[in-house]
Amino acid sequence: MQKKRKIPQRKCIACQERGDKKGLIRVVKNKDNEIFLDPSGKANGRGAYVCATKECLSKAIKTKAFNRSFKMDVEDDVYSHLLDELEKIDSTND
Fold it and tell me: Residue 13 class from Cβ within 10 Å (0-12 exposed, 13-18 middle, 19+ buried)?
């Protein structure tokens, strides 16, 4: 009999819902303080998870959840870049 593998759970920093790691999108801050989406979930750096919806990403931006997660002030142009990246990912999944 095979043992069932445990599915990693993560919490969205915007809506606080727990979900499977694969169902959430990881946002990474690397050691050069660059912030970007990490669809692979394997990039080096500090990660924060957010639901794969524009609503949750917008809420995380509005509530400054990334500022708290990464312990730094995140610039507005980084937020617009994250929204653009999410739209590109959504369009490739359709």
Answer: buried
- Phi then psi dihedrals of residue 59, to 5 deg: -65, -40
Chain-wide mean pLDDT for the chain? Answer: 92
* Distance separating alpha carbons of residues 74 and 33, to the nearest angstrom: 9
Tokens 């990881």 sit at which residue?
26
Going by C-alpha positions, the residue among 55, 46, 54, 39 that lies closest to residue 74 is 46
Query: Cβ distance 37 to 85 under 8 Å?
Result: yes
CA distance 23 to 76: 26
Give the SS3 label for residue 85: helix
pTM strictly above 0.85: yes
Whether 39 contacts 91, CB under 8 Å: no
Q: Give the pLDDT score at 1.
A: 67
